[in-house]
Amino acid sequence: MKKTADLLKTNIALVDLSAVVLDARIPLSSLNPLVEEVVSRKPVLYLLNKADLADEAETRYWAAWLKKKKNGHVMTCSAVRPSEAARITAACFSLCGEAKTGRRGVRVLITGIPNAGKSTLINTLCGEAKAKTGDRPAVTTKLQKILTPGGLDLYDTPGILWHKFENQEKAGRLAATGAIREEILNLPDIALFAIGFLQKYYRDALASRFALGNAVGEEPVTVLEAVARKRGCIGKGGSVDWDKAAALFLREMRAGKIGRLTFDRWDEFCAAGENDTGNGGALPSPQPAAGSGGSGDAV
After folding, report:
1. Whole-model pTM above 0.85?
2. Secondary structure E strands in the chain
């Protein structure tokens, strides 16, 4: 983390703007305070990436909040789609303004938490595989400078987390969406955390994906056991292979096979009284959810 933080501090002086890649499923939890401190020295474009995996209504709330909080430089995107390249490139040129001299490309520092999709974004902007990608954190390990055909000079940095999380809930959200290396996690614990969340907000989608029926309302450990037995995650003597079951569950959830999910909930944020942007007042509170798993109407 220190090495990457030093890279950011050194290279921020060389660029025209920063593109901070956020995970749309955890827009608040993926907003790294270490990154915020550094990139605030130059114009910033916030990209709510993986929007195709996130709850659309929730994304609209968070995009509106970020727009007010960050003075308007916010876009939702799905970096896996080639069609995103033109509009993101145009946004960079527009935000850069007078810094573009015509003698060089617009220099953009790409940063964010691990596994937010930074390398995928770069490959989309380039139209080919220039940066290493993977469905796991810490694929990028050093600074890479990459030129795009659209006129952007990209400075790709390794994903960075911060030294201490504010609470275990935020850590759980980061782990559930794949921002923390699995080698240092207890996967069954993360799967149980995710199941508990899905039971609260996306119960019908959870029940449908794993054919759980009424069992969807049982304790998370009972739900994970049901998933294990339905999917053959069984060890010797018929016992549940908890690690295999947890890995399977998390893999399918992260891939969007359960449905579009957002772990940072706008209603919880509002209930905590934290939705004042400090730049024009608070945004509207969400409408009550319509049925299980809903998030209400978007603003």
Report:
1. yes
2. 17-23, 44-49, 74-76, 106-112, 144-147, 152-156
